[in-house]
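Recap slide: Substrate-binding domain-containing protein, sequence and predicted structure.
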Amino acid sequence: MAAFSLFSLVANKEAGVQDLSLDQIRQLYDGRITNWSEIGGADMPVRLVSRAPDSGTRRTFQQQLLDGRREREQLR
């Protein structure tokens, strides 16, 4: 048996970032990075958008990428 989990994260082109590391993704989702300029992008605030809190995809994302932690409260 094999399992495969795939997530695509998309940043607005104007944010000016590409190829985020796992650590950067975790910092974005826990609120330690709040401006794209902190990771080499444009000077503009980070605005995260995700699936509904009760989504299975979101729960899997939290488990697999965020070490089981929930995202910061400001998530839309």
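Residues 56-65 form the longest helix (10 residues).
The chain has two helices and no strands.
(End of recap.)
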